[in-house]
Amino acid sequence: MRKARQKTEREPTIALINIVFLMLIFFLVAGTLAQPLDSTLNLVRTADLEGNAPADALVVHPDGRMSLKGKEISSVAEYMAGIGQEAPELVRLVPDRDASAAQLVTLGRELRAAGAQRVVIVTERGLE
């Protein structure tokens, strides 16, 4: 008598390929359903704009130094005196990319304690 051959189980790779293919088709169709922009519309060009920090922004350097309007300052109190307002509604921080996050959090707390109502960190995209 011959022994019956055992059937080896095949992996369902064909089923996975079919599912991936169907998902691809779905996303291709879903992506083309969005309304196109009006062909006569001309978008605003911002490539020629010069990105400058606001004049009253507190610049934070990577080594912890702070400056206002190009002049180095040593404390939050000196910054508050330099902008000429007792309790500004909005304080802008312009940190260097390599500045410490912990330092920025501490500086934000000091500014809030000094009377700033809002502290906003200005990033590269915000300057564009």
From TrEMBL:
Main location (coarse class): membrane
One GO MF term, please?
Answer: transmembrane transporter activity
Transmembrane intervals: 12-34
Question: What processes in GO biological process is this protein linked to?
Answer: protein transport
A GO cellular-component term linked to this record: plasma membrane
| Keywords attached to this entry | Cell membrane, Membrane, Protein transport, Transmembrane, Transmembrane helix, Transport
Membrane topology of this protein? Single-pass membrane protein; Single-pass type II membrane protein
Q: Where in the cell is it found?
A: Cell membrane
Q: Which InterPro entries match?
A: ExbD
Where does the record place a coiled coil?
none
Family membership, please give it: Belongs to the ExbD/TolR family.
Write down what this protein is called. Answer: Biopolymer transport protein ExbD
